[in-house]
Amino acid sequence: xxxxxxxxITGILLLFTxxxxxxxxxxxxxxxxxxxxxAWDASADDVISAETGGESGAGPSTYDSVYGGTCYTFPKEYxxxxxxxxxxxxxxxxxxxxxxxxxxxDADELLSLYESINDSxxxxxxxxxxxxxxxxxxxxxxxxxxxxxxxTTMITTENKALQYxxxxxxxxxxxx
Length: 176
What we know:
Layout: H1 2-29, H2 44-52, E1 61-64, E2 68-78, E3 81-90, E4 95-104, H3 107-125, E5 130-134, E6 137-142, E7 149-155, E8 160-167
Antiparallel strand pairs: 1-2, 2-3, 3-4, 4-8, 5-6, 6-7, 7-8
């Protein structure tokens, strides 16, 4: 009788352990953001194919990523506005950050967009764990196990820009 109970308990523990490990692995592979379908294990070729729809001649602009690899950028509409999506890779060609950036000439328009995105992220994940509120710059950071979300703005006389970024768990949860 004890042996049967031991086998049942061991089976249940094994089932829970497998489910917990599987969930964590899935969370680390999935980018859960509203402006891309890419997973964290996507390659640069995957990103280029998805963003260009396979059209030849519709390649990305590139520059050095802050993570030591390449950043691929594409025009991308989000929230009814045409901005730029950025896929930032590290030196090992692993996707570390996906961001959508938008620039305009009107500070009030930028504030309205910021508030809309901020409200939607607050609704889904709760209040931010960090808020920057400096003249010309404001933003929030949500520290999540699945990767941080960073919403920032920069306002100068020449530029008014917003970036909405999702970070890979490997470069997240670095509360200051």
